[in-house]
Amino acid sequence: MSLRNRWGLRAGLVQLSVLLTLLGSLLPTPAAAHGERATEPYIRTRTVHWYDVTWSSQKINVSDTVTVEGKFHLFTDWPDAATKPELAFLSNASPGAVMTRVESYINGMPAQQSVRQLEIGRDYSFKLVMRGRIPGRWHLHPVLNVHGAGPIVGPGHWVDVAGSAADFKVPVTTMTGEVIDDLQHYGVARVQWWQAGYALLAIAWIVWWIRRPLIVPRWNAIKKGREDLLVTRTDDRVAAGLLVVVLVVVIAGYRYTTQKYEYVVPLQAGSFKTKPLPQESPVVTVELKDATYDVPGRSLRLDVEITNQSGSPLRVGEFSTANLRFINQSLDVALAGVDPSFPKDLVPGSGLRISDDSPVAPGETRKLRLEATDAAWETERLVSFLTNVDSRVGGMLFFFDGGGQRHMAEVSGPIVPVFTQLRLAEKS
Amino acid sequence: MNLNDLAILKVSGLSPQAIKWSRTLDVLIVIVAAFLIWAVSHISFLLLGGDWDFFIDWKDRQYWILIIPITTITMAAAFQAIFWNLFRLPVGATASLLLLLVGTWIVRYHSWQGLAFFPISLVVPGTCLMGALVLDAVLVLSRSWLVTGAFGAVLYGLLFYPSNWIYMAGYFQPVQNMGDMTSVADLIGYTFPRAGTPEYIRIIERGTLRTFGDTPTWVSAFFSAFACIFLYYLFWGLGVLACNSRFFPVGDRFKSIYGGKSGAADSEPALKPGVPS
Questions:
Q1: Quick one: which of A47, A261, A383, A399 is 20 to 30 A from B68 by CA?
Q2: What is the pLDDT of residue A25?
Q3: Hey, which residues 22-41 in chain A have their CB within 8 Å of chain B?
Q4: Of A143, A147, A250, which is closest to B162 when you measure between CB atoms?
């Protein structure tokens, strides 16, 4: 092959690859992820703690519903960098509108609009009813959008939606009696027909001008002072006609529409307020004495002082933070508390190691070391304590008494990353 | 080709062969200009108008009516000034809004529906196209940017609401959802979730200004029309500035840095290809 042919082939391949790249960029390719791990750890560990979250099903057909419900606790040690939850909206995270929202509730109250003045340190229940729309395997999370803090994403579960998107419809009947067959397409044809009509007028107007000698001749005519040739009396008449047509179409169309839709309402944008769930009197206090994160060992170590203020012995059953649940494997009631539907990737198999797992007696104060070790700290991108302006950690501790009753307590404080085994040995 | 066209060609002083090639040039420039106008109008609108025209449940009676005309008249006025000053072509505003509308629909189908699965009913756009036609027509009739700003820009702002209400009114019928009365537009926004666009992000009717009809709609429309006058003049002026590009001579050192021949003439007078009226 001659040098010229080789260069020609190479140039052809380059052109082909450029063409394929351009064509590829035109084809829509939906993203599977939605950034749940991108939020800073200080927000995920110290703002909204989701618990008792369940998904009614992981396999549904198009038009079937899946209910996500549970509770969330608003953490007392809310970071200064994030706005307090004065205004919030309960939503879901999924890659686009692959599921539709049928109903949503906070504390049993309809949450179609935003909720205001949520109380720090308190708990709320939530419920989301979602309906399968686009077939596929979708990650479905509850989300609390907090004004000024952003979306705070709860645990996510994969939900398989089977069937055909063509079967999905949202029929609605308005309060004036109009039956809407499908909300997905409602009004679209009407918008497109009218805008196509407007566009035809615009095209006709542009063609009227550009059909005649255009750039260089008109430029030269202006330079020679013959503007009178460029905009004629006929152009004046056409412009006047256009003006009349536009005004008649708009005024007549507007009058017709206002008569057709006698009852219309503005967009609704109020917010609602709800009281938090009843608060149980504190039965256990937890004070964080020391917290380290072992970087090479991927282990969070908490030295805590626990005081049992209840009348029955308590055992530590679970440490939960940023949707990860470290369970005390030797406590059956804690293990039983993990719903079978809960995502396995959020329950590290290594569990929670406790320096002294015997029950803390009523009135006793005991120092314990809790170790939560798992690669999930890395995979969930929770180790950027190193780069955050607010190097603190937080989480919820779940205690269980002899009768299986669960009690929650917050734990939070500064965290120190430990980079070498030597330093670890010194600290332990 | 009519007598007027022949007269223009005669005045232009072009040879028959140059006339033939000038038509080819016309076609090429129209194609390139269309992409340029589309891109500039679209980017400008995305930056300034944003969410108010993305979603059906953002199209409120106050800010949607106010913001869309005053953001779109900017590029409409600038392109109108350029085409009128250089070629006496009163199509700048219409071309800007027409291409914006075409581009918007492409994005709605490609990105909003194709990538995010939003139904088109959630993302139907509004348009100021009827106002743009009026703006160009008033310029032809008046031959004056001053009159066009005073009357055309006012009509541009005023026509936005009624020309869009014709096909948008149905979205504002009342419907009951979870025990509350809401609009069809609100229900569409609620039903098809946008993970990154929580409900409270919407800015819906702040303040208490109302007409006797208990609606801020026409108050907003008239204020929009008023604001359009000033934005029209401002961006007409920027369009005129754009017509006045000049080429400044550069020195030998500059040329040598960029690989040009040193010693080339660097004292040529500034060229002035376009002079505004």
A1: A261
A2: 64
A3: 26, 28-31, 34
A4: A250
Higher pLDDT, A204 or B274: A204
How far is the C-alpha of B221 from the C-alpha of B67, rounded, in Å?
Answer: 10
Give the side-chain half-sphere CA count within 13 A for B55: 24
Classify residue B118 by burial, with Cβ atoms within 10 Å: 0-12, 13-18, 19+: buried
pLDDT digits 0-9 by tens, A72-129: 999 999 998 899 999 999 999 888 899 999 999 999 999 999 999 999 999 999 999 9
Determine the Cα–Cα distance for residues B39 and B67; give it in Å rounded to an integer: 20
Measured distance CA(A203)–CA(B44) in Å, rounded? 22
- A residues 238..257 contacting B (CB < 8 A): 239-240, 242-243, 246-247, 249-251, 253-254, 256-257
Number of domains, chain B = 1
HEC assignment per residue over B22-61: HHHHHHHHHHHHHHHHHHHHHHHHHHHCCHHHHCHHHCCC
Closest residue in chain B to residue A165, using alpha carbons only:
B117
First-to-last alpha carbon distance for chain A, in angstroms, is 71
Q: Report the residue of chain A nearest B119, measured CA to CA.
A: A184
Tokens in use for A13?
Answer: 């391949």
* All structural domains of chain A with their residue ranges: 41-176, 188-260, 284-427
* CA-derived radius of gyration, chain B: 23
CA dihedral A146, A151, A156, A162 (to 10 degrees): 110
Taking CB atoms and an 8 Å cutoff, what residues of chain B touch A214? 22-23, 26, 29-30, 87, 89
Helix (H, G, I), strand (E, B) or coil at A140: strand
Q: Does residue A383 surpass a pLDDT of 90? A: no
* Rounded Cα distance, B51 and B59, in Å: 9
Residues of B in contact with A184 (CB under 8 A): 119-121, 192
- pLDDT for B143-160, tens place per residue? 999 999 999 999 999 999
In A146-302, which residue ranges form alpha helices assigned H by DSSP? 188-210, 215-223, 233-260
What would be the CATH architecture of the domain defined by A284-427? Answer: Sandwich (2.60)
The alpha carbon of residue A48 is apart from the nearest alpha carbon of chain B, in Å, by 17
Contacts of A251 (CB under 8 A, 6+ apart): B162
Query: CATH number for the domain including B233?
Result: 1.20.1450.10
Q: Check A175 against B176: CB less than 8 A apart.
A: yes
Q: What is the pLDDT of residue B275?
A: 47
